[in-house]
């Protein structure tokens, strides 16, 4: 037998009271773990949506509007291509990829198309769908549960954003949007003359139903030469990690590129990000409430426990326990209660998130191991806080009075 | 062994202060069996707890083997209770969720003894009080007499020099009381421990080789062998 045996046996003796003392803390931790688990999945879903979307931050010249970018007027303002370098060398966390673009409306054989200069390698890296339309689907299926449409994966990707793989773009090659190809009567392998230079249509892109169908993509530097703009671009598309965006990535980018307009192409995911943020805020409020209620209920239980064990404490003192022994006995008990509450809360919270997540949010929830550690830490902290005063009282009991009361 | 010099204990509470011990001076020699009697509220329990290091006197000194108990720190006092004193209380005070055997082990645990030593010693003590088949029973599964025997075994756990018993037979019928008194007498006569016993009953007081009588916190030798509650 060890001193801990006393602790265990006492706990087991009064199980039911212990359980009721633990109820608040267990349920509280369960609620937070539940919310956090769903939020984690939801954030992951946002991440995947953003990946499908390709870039989600748009850097435009100060004077330009987002419309300018899409309509690509002749005199639409531009800014130096060096800005790409500036962002790249700033090593901002959350910036995944940069793709500079130069866009101009040009006439080819009397037909108006949008000539877009891209840097192929960059462009590709920032739009995973271009590389493999189905790539994101698998992960998405992992994150998104019950909706069978969602489960199909690839179909989840916005149809408008589906693009075919493009490996490289030689200086004399162009990629032609479907509408532009139709209007120009251009087929894959055909030759088109733009601003006096001949290009081969390396590929006709599938229809997206967006302005992109009107575009002809050529190498950025070729387009710059062709239009005589010098090393200028009309936009930089940036792939920003969504948590970094909510952490103020835009502001940091604005510091680096003060004379530009920086916006997000975030409407699709905006509401979900908002919800996640709201959940995070609710979690904090709940955490504070739970910390208080949990502490009070544990404190209450511990207080009653000290009261009913007064005689026992007196006996321990008579048998040669020091105040240190009493202190350890009760403080350790509070810690054990915290551990039990944290463990119970984690299991309950994770289980309910896994059951309710798909029902309520359409998201398949996985257990988050780090939540386990947090549950234990938070619950133990709450329990210790609640146990503090009762423990202190236990060590201050006057053995004379307790033993007299018998 | 014990030398008390002008020991006074005053309980001060909200409803005024109570002088539980007034200027008690006393010498108790090693190996003696002392019976303390006195009317209710005369300070017997207070005196016993003071001797046992659970109460610090308000004034005066208690020397134990020439060591002043009031100079000991809380920790040293706990160690003194643990190693030198065995308490036997009227209500037994067994720990309800520990078996008889485990109850006997408790003082050894507070002494920081190793598991290996504890078990055989606790078993030997349980056997000594005749409860070998009851070692793993919880207190509530034991008869009152058996519970008091466990309490005695527990008091002996760390082989203390002094046994302090507060009305150890108060809750027992005469037969059981006689049995417990027999134990206490053996502890004194055979083991050579000092036994200090507070009691109301003449039978219990009779085992004392020396009798003290408390009256309103003051102590005097009691040479009469008459009924100690009136005489
Ligand atoms: N913790 C305490 N606070 C205040 N007064 C106390 C306390 N303990 C005892 N007293 C008072 O001190 C006096 C002596 O009490 P004590 O318990 O020592 O008497 P006793 O001789 O053991 O009595 P009994 O025979 O009834 O057990 C009593 O008047 C009692 O009311
Ligand atoms: Mg008493």
Structure description:
The complex is a heterodimer of chains A (about 400) and B (about 230). With about 400 residues, chain A is of the alpha+beta class. Chain A has 2 domains: about 5-40 and about 275-405, no CATH class; about 55-265, no CATH class. In chain A, about 60% of the residues lie in helices and about 15% in strands. Chain A contains 17 helices and 11 strands. Chain A has helices at about 5-15, 15-55, 65-70, 80-90, 120-125, 130, 135-145, 150, 180-185, 220-225, 240-245, 250-255, 265-310, 310-320, 325-360, 370-395, 400-405, and strands at about 55-60, 80, 95-110, 110-120, 175, 190-195, 195-205, 215-220, 230-235, 235-240, 260-265. Chain A has a 9-stranded mixed β-sheet with strand order 6-7-5-8-4-3-10-1-11. A two-stranded antiparallel sheet of chain A has the order 2-9. Chain A starts with a helix and ends with a helix. The model of chain A is unreliable at about 120-165 (pLDDT under 50). Chain B has about 230 residues and is of the alpha/beta class. Chain B has one domain (about 30-55, about 75-220): Rossmann fold. In chain B, the strands form 2 sheets. A 6-stranded mixed β-sheet of chain B has the order 6-7-8-3-9-10, with helices on both faces. Chain B has a 4-stranded antiparallel β-sheet with strand order 2-1-4-5, covered by helices on one side. In chain B, β1 (about 1-15) and β2 form a beta hairpin. The radius of gyration of chain B is 17 Å and the shape is globular. The two termini of chain B are about 30 Å apart. Classes of the chains: A alpha+beta (about 400), B alpha/beta (about 230). The interface between A and B is medium-sized, with 28 and 37 residues. Bound molecules: adenosine-5'-triphosphate and magnesium ion. Adenosine-5'-triphosphate (ATP) sits at the interface of chains B and A. Adenosine-5'-triphosphate sits at the interface of chains B and A.
